[in-house]
Design brief:
The complex is a heterodimer.
Chain A (H helix, E strand, L loop, with lengths): L2 E2 L10 H7 L15 H20 L7 E4 L2 H15 L5 E5 L4 H9 L6 E5 L9 H7 L4 E5 L13 H10 L4 E4 L18 E5 L10 E5 L25 H39 L3 E3 L10 E6 L4 H10 L2 E2 L1 E2 L2 H4 L6 H5 L4 H4 L2 E5 L6 H21 L9
Parallel strand pairs in A: 1-11, 3-4, 3-5, 5-6, 6-7
Antiparallel strand pairs in A: 2-8, 7-8, 9-10, 10-13, 12-13
Helix pairs in contact in A: 1-7, 2-7, 3-4, 7-12, 8-12
Chain B lengths: L5 H8 L12 E7 L4 E9 L5 E9 L2 H14 L4 H4 L4 H7 L8 H19 L14 E3 L4 E2 H11 L4 H8 L9 H12 L17 H22 L2 E9 L2 E8 L7 H16 L5 E4 L3
Parallel strand pairs in B: 7-8
Antiparallel strand pairs in B: 1-2, 2-3, 4-5, 6-7
Helix pairs in contact in B: 1-2, 2-5, 4-5, 5-7, 6-8, 9-10
The chains are: A alpha/beta, B alpha+beta.
């Protein structure tokens, strides 16, 4: 059996999405900017995709810019907002952001920017008072993620955005992990900018969305033609845009049932593993998190070894251990949460999708405990059993 | 996903000799849970002083477990003297190679073996063998100067990144990078602690000169050329004139003339005498 539980890394492209994309690799090759009918036909589909993407977060279609990926959207937000306010030299973000935000913000230091990285508590939660205290007249941008990719923990984005708004500071959220998994409404949440990645919600890799609320000043990142209302030059990636539109449509239509589906399976998996495997711990807030993500630490054993043993029985997951990243320290998220190194090295993230089944989850519940037991029997740190 | 060899996968999924020897003659433990990997190696000797049984317990990734498993297989049946010559490269070779970022796993194996042998020699009632009194360079991972020197010398390391791959030193906060650079430079110029200095002698007899040229070619020049698939042979030495033949990749190399001058001649001038002129054998 093959069980894919690494959906926060990437998701399976929905068959409906592939089907929607197909004509645009074939007969529908026109350039949407062209005056003739070849172009006009295609333009209609781009417009539709824009409407569908907008509907998923309750935005206006004019506020949607198609990009190449979530990372581009994050870069666009940070660079675009800073350039629009050149006199302000301070960025606020958090310690647990995705590298697309964290590395981009840190990069700006070399141009004289100050970067405040807000800390999180042991459950990965933000302290809004720290955010309040950090904002100054010099703050050009606050960028905080909606949902954490490693733990699934949800930041209080509505409250955080309101704080930024009350001080007149633009607010960006990396919502790559949240969009499509939980309902998001930008009419009720005063974010100025928001990033979406296609392949995290069953569209393809190579497509992202940058949302910028009407009236938010964002300098363009790519210069050239007038595409995307002059906000992102370059001929539109038509098949991928159409695919993203279809994926957004499916996600919006099923968001409640998929939430329930993922949460039921995730909770079953998590409670069974915590019960069957001694010396395990849940990383991240137990309630305030995505319905599909479970991050569990197995004490005394190391994540890469667990992953490869899981892989050997057809189960795909991921880990925040040092060895899986190629660096020597466990993930920056685990460290920021103060997860002891001993537990961080043995942390495993299971992330589910609409395609997972009860049968698959039962299979993982059957296979995981003996793997932990086997590696623990090999580990010099496993406490000897009494008697 | 790492590019592990079939042998690494086999030793990871079917590790040999796991477990504990209760009445072990030697026990060595290196690494720690905080560092991300740790290995406890135990061995028992037979009446003739050969390793009769070896077992391990490992906390770590697939390559750490495979390296430990390989190590126990390698040392079984060997005397302690024979076992003590095993290097980290031998462990990696046994496994058909390790990704460079994982070479520290093989180094951990070698260190555990040395610690276990040390533990046996010092009376061996088990437990951790304390690190030598060498200065700790990398405080994030507790790596000493001696350990770095040894890894640089034995594996011909050139960059801080390589030292990190082999020893973990420098893989945390990065505060010791310039220190590591200094150690690399010192070891590579042959000035590591305890080694004889290799300064150019002031006067040489003809015999001494010939011997020294041979030695420098072997020690300083050939390893460097071999890394690029080339080789060199000494043809003749006549006073300051050294005639060589380029071999392997060097013989077909378009920049061999530069190698001749910038590497071969430069090294010989550095270590033998300043008036050395290197010529290629006329074909």
């Amino acid at each position: 059996m093959e069980v894919y539980l690494d959906n926060n890394a990437t998701t399976r492209t929905a068959p409906e999405v592939v089907e929607a994309m197909a004509p645009f690799f074939g007969t529908e090759y026109g350039n949407p900017s062209s005056m003739h009918n070849f172009g006009g036909r295609v333009k209609k589909h781009i417009d539709e995709a824009r409407e569908k993407a907008a509907a998923l977060i309750n935005a206006d279609p004019a506020e949607i810019v198609f990009t190449s990926c979530g990372t581009e959207s994050d870069n666009m937000a940070i660079r675009g907002a800073l350039e629009a306010e050149p006199d302000k030299r301070h960025i606020i973000t958090s310690k647990v952001e995705h590298p697309a935000v964290l590395a981009s913000a840190r990069y700006m230091k070399r141009f004289g920017y100050r970067v405040t990285e807000l800390s999180v508590d042991g459950q990965g939660m933000l302290d809004l008072n720290e955010l309040r205290a950090s904002i100054s007249d010099d703050t050009a941008l606050v960028s905080l993620m909606w949902a954490n990719n490693e733990t699934g923990v949800l930041f209080p984005i509505k409250e955080a955005a309101e704080i930024a708004q009350s001080k007149g500071v633009p607010f960006h959220t990396d919502a790559v992990q949240a969009v499509g998994k939980i309902p998001i409404d930008v009419k009720k949440t005063p974010v100025n900018m928001l990033s979406i990645s296609g392949h995290k919600l069953h569209a393809t890799k190579g497509i992202g969305v940058f949302y910028a609320r009407r009236g938010t000043a964002v300098m363009p990142f790519m210069h050239g033609g007038h595409q995307e209302n002059g906000r992102r030059a370059g001929t539109e990636n038509v098949p991928y845009i159409v695919g993203l539109g279809r994926a957004a449509e499916i996600a919006a239509a099923n968001i409640d049932s998929e939430f329930e589906h993922a949460k039921n399976l995730r909770d079953r998996l998590e409670s069974a593993l915590l019960e069957k495997c001694p010396d395990t711990r849940l990383n991240g807030h137990p309630e305030l998190r995505l319905p599909n993500t479970s991050n569990v630490s197995f004490e005394y054993i190391e994540g890469e070894a667990i992953l490869l043993m899981l892989d050997n029985v057809g189960i795909a997951a991921s880990s925040g251990s040092a060895c899986t990243s190629g660096s020597l320290e466990p993930s920056h998220v685990m460290r920021a949460m103060g997860v002891p190194f001993t537990a961080a090295h043995g942390s495993i993230r299971f992330s589910l999708s609409r395609y997972n089944t009860q049968e698959e989850i039962e299979y993982v519940i059957e296979k995981m405990p003996p793997i932990a037991e086997r590696l623990r029997a090999m580990s010099p740190f496993t406490p000897k059993k009494a008697g | 996903m790492w590019d592990y060899t079939e042998k690494v996968k086999d030793h990871f999924l079917n590790p040999r000799n796991t477990g504990v020897i209760e009445d072990a003659h030697g026990v060595g433990q290196v690494g720690s849970m905080a560092c991300g990997d740790a290995l406890k190696l135990m061995f028992k000797l037979d009446a003739e002083g050969r390793i009769e049984d070896a077992r391990f317990q490992t906390f770590g990734c697939a390559s750490a477990i495979a390296s430990s498993s390989a190590l126990t297989e390698m040392i079984k049946g060997k005397t302690l003297e024979e076992a003590s010559t095993i290097t980290n490269q031998d462990i990696a070779d046994y496994l058909g190679g390790l990704p460079e970022q994982k070479m520290h796993c093989s180094v951990m194996g070698m260190e555990a073996l040395q610690a276990a042998i040390e533990n046996y020699k010092s009376g061996g009632d088990a437990g951790n063998v304390e690190k030598t009194d060498s200065r700790v360079v990398c405080s994030c991972f507790g790596v000493t100067e001696k350990e770095i020197e040894k890894a640089v010398a034995e594996n011909d390391l050139r960059t801080v990144e390589q030292v990190t791959h082999y020893t973990k030193a420098g893989g945390g906060c990065g505060g010791c990078h310039s220190d590591i650079e200094g150690i690399i430079a010192r070891v590579r110029s042959g000035l590591a602690q305890g080694e004889p200095t290799r300064k150019r002698p002031s006067k040489l007899t003809n015999i001494q000169r010939i011997k020294l040229v041979e030695e420098v070619v072997e020690r300083e020049i050939r390893p460097q050329l071999k890394r690029d698939g080339g080789d060199i042979e000494l043809v003749d030495i006549d006073g300051p004139r050294v005639v060589v033949a380029m071999r392997g990749a060097c013989s077909k190399c378009s920049v061999a003339q530069f190698t001749l001058r910038d590497v071969v001649e430069a090294k010989l001038r550095e270590f033998v005498s300043e008036d050395i002129v290197v010529e290629e054998e006329s074909k």
